[in-house]
Automatic annotation (TrEMBL):
This is 3-hydroxydecanoyl-[acyl-carrier-protein] dehydratase. The gene is fabA. Its main location: cytoplasm. Keywords: Cytoplasm, Fatty acid biosynthesis, Fatty acid metabolism, Isomerase, Lipid biosynthesis, Lipid metabolism, Lyase. Belongs to the thioester dehydratase family. FabA subfamily. It is found in: Cytoplasm. Its EC number is 4.2.1.59, 5.3.3.14. GO terms for biological process: unsaturated fatty acid biosynthetic process. It catalyses: a (3R)-hydroxyacyl-[ACP] = a (2E)-enoyl-[ACP] + H2O; (2E)-decenoyl-[ACP] = (3Z)-decenoyl-[ACP]; (3R)-hydroxydecanoyl-[ACP] = (2E)-decenoyl-[ACP] + H2O.
Length: 171
């Protein structure tokens, strides 16, 4: 049986409620912190490293919550939200692969911001290239990612790391 390779907004909301991968497993955040509207492609192979790829989108509307507070009179999407979306997608990929545990961002290597998302934009596209998946005492996903707004790349992150934990008591 083949795995689902695209996910709608409703699918992602199910994941945020813990209904997609089962209780105690990878979960996306609920709105407003869910920074993804759909996953248009997810695979176990492909991508720059041949180990998996995720392409996801976020529709931009001038009334998104962060534009009202970041910054008053100069609205722009906070860069940390785009970075968080990339971590969200690496964790989602681990759950989609069938690994157990709750996802936690563990860091990244180099992050670069060279553009911005304004309220006039239409769509953000995230592309994640899985570099490595480790499943030992800790399940760990390592990936590189980019974020584009209306087709123009504006962020990049290398070495995005997300772990899955069956218990976060000592984390």
């Amino acid at each position: 049986m083949s795995k689902q390779n695209a996910f709608s907004r409703e699918d992602l909301l199910k994941c945020s409620r813990g209904e997609l991968f089962g209780p105690g497993n990878a979960q996306l955040p609920a709105p407003n912190m869910l920074m993804i509207d759909r996953i248009t492609h997810i695979s176990e192979t492909g991508g720059r490293f041949g180990k998996g790829e995720i392409v996801a989108e976020l529709d931009i509307h001038p009334d998104l919550w962060f534009f009202a507070c970041h910054f008053e009179g100069d609205p722009v999407m906070p860069g940390c939200l785009g970075l968080d979306a990339m971590w969200q997608l690496v964790g989602f990929h681990l759950g989609w692969l069938g690994f157990e545990g709750r996802g936690r961002a563990l860091g990244s290597g180099e992050v670069k911001f060279f553009g911005q998302v304004l309220p006039t934009a239409k769509k953000v596209t995230y592309t994640i290239h899985i570099k490595r998946t480790i499943n030992r005492a800790l399940t760990l996903g390592i990936a590189d990612g980019t974020m584009a707004v209306d087709g123009r790349e504006i962020y990049s992150a290398e070495g995005l790391r997300v772990g899955l934990f069956t218990s976060t008591d000592s984390f």
